[in-house]
Design goal:
By secondary structure, this protein is an alpha/beta fold. It is built from 13 helices and ten strands.
Length: 376
Amino acid sequence: MNLSDFERTNHSGLYISKVAHPIFGKKYIARFQYERKRYVKVLGYTKKDNLTKKSALDLMQKFKDSIMLKEDKIETVINKPVATKENSFENEQLSKLIKENEQLLSILGDYKKLDTDILKEGVQKIYDLEELKRYQIELIKLQNHLESNNQRMIVLFEGRDASGKGGAIRRMTRYMNNKHYRIVALGKPNDTQRTQWFFQRYIEHFPTGGEIVLFDRSWYNRAMVEPIFGFCTKEEHEIFMEDVVNFEQDLVRQGMILVKLYFSVSKEEQKRRFDRRIQDPLRQWKFSEVDMQAQDLWDEFSEKKYEMLRRTTSRSAPWHIVRSDNKHKARLEAMKIILNSVDYDGRNYSLDYEPDEAVNISVQRELLQMRKSKNY
């Protein structure tokens, strides 16, 4: 192979033939030196192998990595001391590490091109998803139990903007039978709905026998969002606060399984999530005008939240507070709360259903915390 027939690319060690083969196209080769040895390898042709400069560069990097790993192994063998009882364990451990390294490289691929933080986040998500799967299986059992017994369930997801409600709903319903659950996220009421009984437009979406309905925000909009933004009068807000407990008690008395979840995010974490929405093109659609005001109106929301939790929790329909700065832990605890609300058949008692008291906390504790600080 005559190097004069090739020209350098703008990548060190990567060459391409000056003249193209009439059938195969131009030829890429890799040529580099390592540990005083020169290595040359034909990588392929532009037409025959559909090779581009980028793919040729990837092939060259893999070739270099394989040579370096091979040379490192040879160096290890050459410099390997005479086997003794003292170093046999070390050699065994070294061999194990080499195998583990090879396995990780085969899984991660060209990981050096990825940002370390993104890579860590991706790997952690895999572990988190595997942990959730055991509880997602239980949610399917619960769903089957409700269907078999013709029972109805409503789950309310409340919390400030960016508190993690939507993500939790997606994880919970990921493997569930979509014929027997619905997600309801109502927008602003229309002119007709404004003249109706306030609860009427929510009742229209209530579950039938064997069905679960998950409300991504609910009638509790009137307890927090509406009074703050002036979407309801003070009188309408007060009427709601007086009526909602009796309304929910009637639902439970008539056989409805009602679970109320409040995702409690800190001010600092909410800001971090908003900043990420603004900067990430994949998340920018989530950011709204209301989000822009959420931080400025933090104290107002805190006051309404405190009043709502204090006045609307009851024995028949208590609030469950889920601290949601850690999304994975919040999702896990929310699943536990739902699973613990029904004595369903086939429960896997080997799982841990006990609440994590740092994440799944009582209304009383949340109110006490809020009296000390409005950070939640």
